[in-house]
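for the recovery benchmark. tokens below, seq after
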């Protein structure tokens, strides 16, 4: 997808994002509120506020960065959404005056940065915005290449009387990249929702964090802080900036 940019995912999906992905894990709000320790919080890829809004309802001061004006417009239209400051920018390269006790990026969104250089730059940008001792939390899947046969996979996600939803994906092992289309077929036509990711194993994330001056403090299997292990399909990783 040569015309795929930082905005593409959000601009294409904004209208239906909340109907597909409204659910969130209440434990994510507990964990993030606790890690914030009463300080300011920054969400990278804040989107329509699925996590940021309930976090704000807990009394946490939260702001965001997102590349998609359409996603941010959906956030602003919700109760409390307009009160959350959002910077329209790619989250690998932004500059804010504030320093944060917690930054986080949920729902595999870190992988939206499509090169290792961009992912390292994101870690470095986040580290610059953390107060001493501040934390950066990444929620992401553990790559599972067994999903692919001959570098491709097609998956049916839902079948209804008037609709079929499926995913078509191509794997590029050299670039650690998965290029997908979420396809919605109805009698009225076809809608395509593109998404491209550069996946990374937890160990590569740890190295990138180290380059940026962040150290792994916790790795959980989920927001409930279950131990991460060989069967884990996702992780919640907490990195910390040094106190000095
Ligand atoms: C999967 S959604 C997650 C939204 C929200 N965090 C949530 O958990 O529901 C990913 C969000 O990241 C944004 N995004 C993707 N790539 C980005 C980039 N390079 N810079 C800034 N935002 C980006 C999209 O516009 C979208 O709002």
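predicted aa per position
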């Amino acid at each position: 997808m040569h015309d795929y940019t930082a905005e593409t995912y959000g601009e294409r999906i904004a209208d239906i994002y909340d109907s597909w992905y409204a659910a969130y894990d209440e434990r994510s709000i507990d964990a993030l509120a606790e890690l914030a320790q009463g300080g300011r919080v920054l969400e990278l890829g804040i989107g329509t506020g699925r996590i940021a809004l309930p976090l704000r309802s807990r009394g946490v001061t939260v702001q965001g960065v997102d590349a998609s004006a359409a996603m941010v417009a959906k956030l602003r239209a919700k109760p409390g959404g307009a009160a959350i400051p959002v910077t329209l920018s790619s989250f690998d390269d932004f500059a804010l005056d504030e320093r944060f006790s917690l930054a986080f990026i949920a729902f595999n969104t870190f992988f939206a940065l499509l090169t290792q250089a961009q992912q390292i730059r994101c870690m470095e940008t986040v580290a610059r915005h953390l107060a001493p001792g501040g934390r950066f939390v990444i929620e992401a899947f553990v790559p599972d290449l067994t999903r692919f046969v001959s570098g491709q996979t097609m998956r049916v996600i839902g079948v209804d009387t008037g609709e079929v939803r499926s995913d078509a994906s191509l794997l590029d092992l050299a670039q650690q990249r998965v290029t997908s289309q979420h396809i919605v077929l109805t009698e009225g036509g076809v809608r395509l929702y593109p998404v491209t990711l550069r996946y990374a194993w937890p160990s590569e994330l740890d190295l990138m964090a180290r380059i940026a001056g962040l150290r792994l403090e916790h790795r959980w299997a989920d927001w409930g802080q279950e131990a991460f292990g060989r069967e884990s399909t996702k992780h919640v990783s907490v990195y910390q900036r040094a106190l000095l």
